[in-house]
């Protein structure tokens, strides 16, 4: 699925959710979760986190998406809105773990930028 197809499909699912069509919304959440896992897992592994931490972060992002779904403007693209939620949840995730000396993450600025850049689900990952 191309980025354009994903944008269109997920935006339509968000519109469907507003019309009360739960099935389309649930399917989109599953697709988003899969895309997030694919995108975030390699980034988190590079800085010493495992699968359970990736899953924790994915769940936090999905909770954020669900809780803020009313703020998405259907006249605007969906993926940048989702990326913003993802970026803030990732920052919160790293900030929360910064105090844990066993998990201290000391990276160069360039490495941090790469971690929080647009996720791979915005690229063509069919």
Task: Provide an overview of this structure.
The protein is mostly helical and 126 residues long. It is 70% helix and 0% strand. The protein is built from five helices and no strands. Helix 1 (3-18) crosses helix 2 and helix 3 packs across helix 4 (78-98). The model has no long low-confidence stretch (mean pLDDT 85).
Low-confidence spans: pLDDT under 50, at least 5 residues?
A: none
N-to-C SSE string, H for helix and E for strand: HHHHH
Q: Main sheet, how many strands, which sense, barrel?
A: none
Shape: elongated
- Report mean pLDDT, rounded to a whole number: 85
Strand tally is 0
Distance between the termini: 5 Å
Gyration radius over CA:
15 Å
Sheet-strand content, in percent, reads under 5%
**How many H/I helical runs?**
5
Structural class: mainly alpha
What is the share of helical residues? 55-70%
Q: What order do the helices and strands come in, and which of them pair?
A:
Elements: H1 3-18, H2 22-46, H3 51-68, H4 78-98, H5 109-116
Provide a compact summary of the structure.
With 126 residues, this protein is an all-alpha fold.
Brief descriptors of the model:
126 residues; mainly alpha
């Amino acid at each position: 699925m191309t980025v354009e197809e994903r944008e269109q499909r997920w935006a339509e699912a968000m519109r469907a959710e507003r019309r009360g069509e739960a099935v389309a919304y649930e399917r989109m959440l599953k697709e988003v979760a899969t895309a997030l896992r694919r995108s975030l897992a390699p980034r988190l592994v590079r800085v010493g986190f495992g699968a359970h931490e990736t899953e924790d972060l994915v769940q936090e992002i999905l909770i954020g998406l669900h809780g803020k779904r009313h703020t998405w403007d259907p006249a605007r693209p969906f993926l940048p809105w989702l990326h913003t939620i993802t970026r803030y949840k990732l920052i919160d995730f790293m900030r929360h773990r910064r105090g844990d000396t066993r998990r201290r993450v000391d990276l160069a600025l360039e490495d941090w930028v790469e971690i929080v850049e647009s996720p791979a689900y915005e690229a063509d990952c069919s």
